[in-house]
Design a protein that fits this description.
Layout lengths: L1 H33 L7 H8 L21 E4 L2 E5 L10 E3 L17 H12 L4 E5 L2 E5 L2 H12 L4 H7 L2 E8 L4 E6 L8 E3 L1
Antiparallel strand pairs: 1-2, 2-3, 4-5, 6-7, 7-8
Helix pairs in contact: 3-4
Length: 196
């Protein structure tokens, strides 16, 4: 008799488990919906569950996945960068410089250490920036795209640079190193260049 009860209990669990799980998940989704949090894809739930920091602006909304470089440090000097989003319009001025009603500029050539910093950011980069449907779009990592935008503000076009200095090798970004490195052929200028 005890053997039969064990089998019956086992069968009940086998038959009842899917229904119990469905009801539990439905209750969870209902609770999340009341809090305006509906997630369609399981990987999104996993990513959200492993998140330790969520950055939000002063209104509490999440960002639009658009990054903008606002300051650069090059050659011991800090440069303020104007402009927003992925539009490559703006200026780079040494901090402390006052500009009265600046007009948007595109591609004002940068020189010296500032140019070398922008060159490294543009070449050690796998993102793409393009103009489509009257707005600037990106493909790839938003941080890398922000570096392309600031390079364009400094007069450097990544497409031209990639042809002029072809990539020969790379060390992909590694979270332990916190860097990505690329090796480029710079022709007769020097034997090689490494951009990190």
């Amino acid at each position: 008799l005890k053997e039969r009860q064990k089998k019956d209990n086992h069968n009940l669990i086998e038959r009842g488990l899917p229904a119990a799980m469905s009801i539990t998940l439905a209750i969870g989704v209902s609770r999340m919906a009341k809090r305006r949090a509906i997630i369609r894809h399981l990987p999104a739930v996993e990513a959200l569950g492993s998140t330790t920091v969520i950055c939000s602006d002063k209104t509490g909304t999440l960002t639009e996945n658009a990054m903008t470089v606002t300051e650069l440090w090059a050659g011991g000097q800090v440069f303020g960068v104007s402009g927003q989003g992925y539009q490559p319009e703006g200026e780079m001025l040494p901090q402390g410089t006052i500009v009265v009603s600046p007009a948007p500029t595109v591609g004002k050539p940068a020189g010296g250490a500032l140019r070398e910093t922008l060159l490294a950011g543009a070449l050690c980069n796998d993102a793409a920036l393009y103009h489509e449907k009257q707005q600037w779009q990106i493909t790839g990592d938003p941080t890398e795209a922000a570096l392309l935008v600031v390079a364009r503000k400094g007069g450097l076009d990544e497409t031209t640079l990639r042809k002029e200095f072809p990539r020969e090798d790379e060390l992909p970004f590694d979270s332990a190193r916190q860097t990505m490195a690329t090796l480029h052929d710079v022709g007769e200028q020097c034997t090689d260049a490494r951009f990190v």
